[in-house]
Amino acid sequence: MPKGLTRKLIAILFAIGLLGVGFAGGQYYLQRMYERQVEVGYRRALGEFGTHFEKIADELGRARLSVSDKQRSLIAANLRRLIYAAQSNMGELPLGELHLERISHLLDNIYEHTYDFVQGDMDSASLRELHGQIEYVSQELGQLLVSKEREFPWVSWHEYFSTMLLVPEFMQALTSINDGLEEFKPPVRQGEIQGPGIEREQAIEAARVFCGRDDLNFQVTNEIKGNIPSYTVEAIGDTARYVLEVSKRGGMVLWMTVTSASQGILESTLSLEEMVMEGAEFLQQRGFSSLHITDVQVLQNKATLTFVPNRDGVLRYGEPLRVQVSAADGSILGFWATPFFVAQSRVQSDIATNGEVAWDLEDKVQVGVEIVDQKLALIQNERQEEILTTRLGVKYEEDYYLIYLNLETGDEEHIVQVSSPQFF
Predict the structure, then answer these.
(1) Which of 49, 187, 237, 403 has its CB 3.0 to 4.6 Å from that of 89, i.e. a possible disulfide?
(2) Would you list the domain boundaries of the chain?
């Protein structure tokens, strides 16, 4: 081979190798930069989350001493602003499948009580209880941040990219804070579940029947005390892991989560209507009848469906049942029914629905709004007070809405946009 041609070939190979090294180096640099940006984002969100809880605790501490209307209004406004910020931080954290229900309920509860606080209708005992709970969370978050301050990184990126990990290990610490909040003070729920007490074996049988998996070995892994005593029952199969909570009184399945292989499938094979049918059939097979679907949230190839009971012609929004359905194969991934069972155990008051209203429906809707559907609905306002409403399913131009009118006054309580008249 001529020397000139050899030199050219060597130069070409050298250039190709140089380009390859440069490309690989660039990709490595971009990946490391992305990892660092995400890492900084996580640290900032968790840091702000802890700071906002600390400030909420400070404001509640001030609230215990305030007397004047001006000071109460300022404190309430600060609390609402800080709660919005804390909830925003929760949305920025990689919570994945973690359920921080008690922390979320605590923030909601404080927000709702700010209105009573301004009007002087909140007693000092309730204020002390809320302050104690928020102090507990604030202190635990502070300790978590101190312990994690010198750690880097917080996320094992090898596991993150290789196993599609949804929840970084450092976030698991929030679950212990959330669970500890129940031990300090149970979440605010009105009522309790009634029924005969059950033993561990009965809880296992209830879980097995509910799942319909006689082939699995179910075991009680935890006992929960508090407002609603319950057993945690688990089983692991070849393709799925089941976790259920069964109430110690009545043997009711309060919630269920299923971790299955279908959760890693990103392709959807079921339509929204088909997923709704799967969820409704699941509930009907377990004895939940006369239900009406009110909401669908689709995220990460899963649909979370919310149903409410239709009792005596009234939709009971305070008694929801939720089911999570896989869009890949229609399998059930989650079930939540605690508010439903708590409501069944309360004394149900009669609702007067036959009286004439003192207002004209046509005066309560804008010109151009087409009323497609009309139902009675018992909803809850910001203070968790039940209000009987006329629920209008309307079409305006090309959009669909639900309008809730107070049955007594005709005032608008809520206006919610929906994707289709299916939710009327």
Answers:
(1) 49
(2) 24-155+168-184, 200-345, 361-423
